[in-house]
Amino acid sequence: MRLELRDVRYVYAPGTPFEVEALRGVSLVVEPGEVLGIVGGTGSGKSTLVQHMNLLLTPTSGEVLVDGVDATTLKKSELRRRVGLVFQFPESALFAATVEEDVAFAPRQLALDEKEVRERVLESLRVLGAGELAARSPFALSGGEKRRAAIAGVLAMRPEILVLDEPTAGLDPATREDFLALILGLRNAGISVVLVSHDLDEVAEVADRVCALQEGRVLAVGTPAEVFYRDPSQAPATVRVASLLRESKPEIGAPVPFGETLDALRALRGA
Amino acid sequence: MKHPGEGTRVGGSLAVSCYRVSFSYPGSEQPALSDVSFELRPGEYVGVVGPNGGGKSTLVRLLNGLLKPDSGRVLVSGRDPSTEPFEVRKHLGILFQDPENGLVAPFVEDDVAFGLENLGVPRQEMRDRVARAIRAVGLEGYERREPGTLSGGEKQRVALAGLLAVEPEILVLDEPTSMLDASGRREVLEYLETLRAEKTVLHVTHHLEELVRSDRILVLNGGELVADKTPERLLSDADLLRENRLVLPVVQRLALELGLPPAKLRTPEELAEAILARTESGTRAG
């Protein structure tokens, strides 16, 4: 599916002294099958923005369109199945006695037969590299395992877009790398992923496009190179290194992911 | 050589000593820490890294007496935190991960004063200490701001000021930047940097790049202290890093791949400069 936000504004607590305009006219498209990175400082509107993607928040003005159709006319439950939202620290919502029971909670609301529910649960866990966790208690898992179990619950709804809000926050670096591989795996399975992250180095590795937010507005949107080379002071380490060399070595180009950057730097040495 | 912990019983010149400390959570088969020994000398800046579940948080809780070791002993400025937790907390302050949880008062200055209010510090001295602490973290002019209106980086600096006002000699930083965005992170690290040499610091983090300037780095994995090394040695030990699920920061990884010394090149600027110097000398091309 293609999800489009058109000139979305959102005001918290309108008409009170606490009124805050969190989104000030955001237009953005999530294309089918892409990884879209959303970056920006604290308070830039990232979390408010993603909650519009399945209408957990309704725009104060502006539109959300699903394949060109006004999302407010769709059944909310169906919209939320198609656009799965995983909040920050989702493991805090784990509750059941086993991982399998926990993951089954949401798909069970879909009036599927038990066999189908079980298939979906096991498939979701497998996709996330957590198949062996099914029978375990979610409370006896490591941080990374808990988070996989929590994401599996959303994945079992077979969403077309999976929105991950800071999925790697608080995880150790090696687990973080595993999660990036998972994100690419989901994309390769045809699911669009919206990755909200304040870790620019990780966005650099997986995003097909990047949207940079600032104070509720889109500061830039485009390929990672287009967005990050605009302002290298707010860019991943690879871009910061390359942009410092560009002035005297323009042949370095505009690499973003680690591998590309390393190749470009090696080519310089040979020059 | 003396065992760590030995000559520290009375008064002791060590800031922190842990001697053969073990701890298991009730009902858990695996010990959270097993037989861990190390020392912090006054003025040292020491990092702690290791995978989730490696024992980092348990160590922090043992240091301020929230947990009591099953065996072995912990001494902080010569005192046992499990028997004198309130005394120890005057000497050792902890900056936690999430600044939201720590801020309690309506205004920044009240928040900074909060820790002092329980210590019986006279009013005037309290004012002086609060003002000094606010200055130390660069928040002059923020005294009457409401903590809720601050950015993540600013909130974490308020929390840091609250610790500094108590004037502990030892600061424990428990993943102090993990909830912050890139600019908030840089901002907090900059103020932590100014505390070097003035304070003894134990800095727990997942980000090795925050520790490249530290004196030593402890690696905790599976409850065991598996390494206690200088950053130079740790960053150039690929096997040790891999075994402990540590990942070199991007700048250091690029340096290593290019055959440059990773521990000497800390920032993108330093790496870019080294690459330029090498391409221009032209002697080591290829």
From TrEMBL, chain A:
Native source species: uncultured Rubrobacteraceae bacterium
Pfam families in the cross-refs: ABC_tran
Record key words, sorted: ATP-binding, Cell membrane, Membrane, Nucleotide-binding, Translocase, Transport
Taxonomic lineage from the root: Bacteria, Bacillati, Actinomycetota, Rubrobacteria, Rubrobacterales
Protein name as catalogued: ATPase component of general energizing module of ECF transporters
Molecular functions per Gene Ontology: ATP binding; ATP hydrolysis activity; ATPase-coupled transmembrane transporter activity
Compartments where located: Cell membrane
InterPro entries from the UniProt entry: AAA+_ATPase, ABC_transporter-like_ATP-bd, ABC_transporter-like_CS, ABC_transpr_CbiO/EcfA_su, ECF_ABC_transporter_ATP-bd, P-loop_NTPase
Translocase listed as a keyword: yes
GO cellular component, one term: ATP-binding cassette (ABC) transporter complex
Main location: membrane
Boundaries of every ABC transporter domain copy: 3-240
